[in-house]
Amino acid sequence: MKQFFEHLEGVKSCWWPYIATFIIFVIGAIRAYIGGAHCPTRNRIDGKIVVITGGSSGIGLTTAKELAKKGARLILGVRNAERGKRALEYLLQECPETDAIIKLIDLNDFVSIREFANQINLEYERVDILINNAGIIFHPFRKTVDGNEMTISTNYFGPFLLTHLLLNLLSKSDNGRVINLSAVAHLRGKIDLDDLNSEKRFVEIEAFSQSKLALTMFTKHMASLLKHTNITFNAVNPGLVRGTRHLRNSRITTSFFTKLSVWPWMWLFMKTPKQGSQTLLYVALDPFLKNVSGCYFSNCEIQKPSDLVNDVELSEKLYKKTCEIVKIDGETIVKNITGEEEKVE
Description:
Layout: H1 2-13, H2 15-35, E1 49-53, H3 58-69, E2 73-78, H4 81-94, E3 99-104, H5 110-123, E4 129-132, H6 150-171, E5 176-181, H7 204-225, E6 231-237, H8 256-269, H9 273-276, H10 278-285, E7 295-298, E8 301-303, H11 312-326, H12 330-338
Parallel strand pairs: 1-2, 1-4, 2-3, 4-5, 5-6, 6-7
Antiparallel strand pairs: 7-8
Helix pairs in contact: 5-6, 6-7, 6-11, 6-12, 7-11
C-alpha cells in the first residue's frame, strides 16, 4: 500500500507536462482559428498592373510582396517617401524579381490624389487591379486641407475619388478589379447624410464604422452601375490585424506599460498581416471571381454585409453627396465607361 501511494505521488508530480501540453494545444487552436482561411488559389498574374494604397506597411506591404511573387507590376501609393523607400528595399530583398515603383499620395488631400492619378494615367496604358487599402482608426477629430474630417476622408472620400480617376485605365484591362478594404465594424455603422464629417457628434470608433460602411456601400453601388462592363468591385474584411500602423492612435499604444499588458492578448486574438491579407489576395488573384462583383468577402468567402449596403436609395444619395464633396461628375465618368448615352439610373 505504501508503494502505491508513493507511485501516486509520483504521478501527481508529473502532471505539469500534461497541463503544459494542453495549454499549448489550446493556444495553438486559438491562433489557428483566429488566423482564418488561407488563400486557395495559386494563380499567377504576370504583367498585371496593380495599384495599392498604404503599401509601405502592414497588410498593404504584405499583399504587395505576395503579388510580386505572382508576377505583378506594382505601384505602391505611400504618404511618406522614406517609409516608401524602405518598403521597396524590403520587397527587393524578399523578392529580387519585384517590379515595383513608389508614388506619393495623401488620401486626405484631393489635390494629392489627383496628382497621383494623373501620373498613372500618363505613364500607364491600363490598371488591372486597384486595392484601396490605406486607412486609419481611432484618429482624433481633425479636419483635412479640404475641410473634411480625417477618418472619413482617408477611409472613404479619398478612395472614392481615386477610384473614379482611375476608372478609365481599369476599363482598359480585360478584367479590372477594384478591391476596397472594409471592416467588420461596418456592421454597426450608420450613415448621416447631413453630417458625414461628424461635426455634430464625433466618436472615434463611430467615425471609423461610418467610413467603412460608406466604402462598402460604394462598392456595391459601383458594381451595380458598372455591371455590364469588365470592371468588378468587391469589399474585403481582413479581420483584426496586429503589426500595422492602424493602431498608432489607439489608447492601447499610449504608453510602454499599456502596450506590454495588452500585447499577449493582441498576439493571441489578432491576425498577422500575412493572415489578414489572405482574403485580399484571394479576391485579387482567383480567376473564378472574374465576374463576381458587389460582394463582401471575409475569410475567403462571400458573407452578408450590413443591411444598409443593400439600401439602393440610400446608396444613391450617398453617392451623389460624395460626388459633390470630392468635386467630380460621377455620372459622366460612369457614362463614359459604360458607353451609355442615357442618364445613369
